[in-house]
TrEMBL record:
This is Xylose isomerase-like TIM barrel domain-containing protein. Residues 34-255 form the Xylose isomerase-like TIM barrel domain. InterPro entries: IolE/XylAMocC-like (IPR050312), Xyl_isomerase-like_sf (IPR036237), Xyl_isomerase-like_TIM-brl (IPR013022). It comes from Candidatus Yanofskybacteria bacterium RIFCSPLOWO2_01_FULL_43_22. Gene3D superfamilies: Divalent-metal-dependent TIM barrel enzymes.
Amino acid sequence: MKNISIGIMQGRLTPPKGRGIQFFPFEEWEDEFGKAAKLGFDEIEFIFDLDRYKENPLWSATGRRKIKKLIRKSGVKVNHICADFFMRRPFFRNDKKIIADNIKVLKKLIKYSSEIGARNIEIPILDNGSLKTSLERKQFVAAVKSCLSMARKHKINIGIESDLKAGDLVDLIGQFEGFKIHIVYDSGNSSSLGYDCSEEMSRFGHLIGNVHIKDRVKGGSTVALGTGSANFNHLFEGLKEKKYKGSLILQAARGEDGKEEETLLRYVDFVNNYLDKHKLV
């Protein structure tokens, strides 16, 4: 069994056609399993977003059966659910009714994710969902905590993707006493914020449960792998040192529309070169 699983963020195998860099491909999501298998990906990270969320196949018994069938047929797993829903509509800066509804949504998502064999749900607290105050942190922790017994019952791990500095993120994780919360590390977002990858690996490398492979210019946007500020040598050195065994999910910049497969094959080679260089296989 491989220690490292290379995956692709859902939607990256599909031309965006004006839908932005990241979206749920409602019309094409089934086709992506075959495309991912053809390119040698081990998994697809599924997206659960606010837009049309009740139409997401995760949200219906028929859809979940279809997902499981595609997993069996293609051999491409779904280990992680990227719950962008909670970045668009956070567990804070909203009225009590919306927060209560969010908790209901997360509990359902836990159950449904377990049904398809996923093991992790990731909550992004960045961009619109970024934590700005101590009250927001308190509200976030309380809301997520209320779902953790259910997550444990269904053998689902909760991960947090954050724009917090290393020390603040470790402190936040520590507030979930009695529950294991892991960190989703995004190499591009970290480099964009000017954070030191080596320091981050030292502070919380042992807590990382998934890695998003991305490159960004410091203070800027997503760019092709190897052309931004991300220090991939430090990243892979840190993962090696922490004996990381998990997923590397390509969430990198898109290339030319219609040439998704060519772009992704270059990115897979890029990642494999670092895996070989640092003997992280």
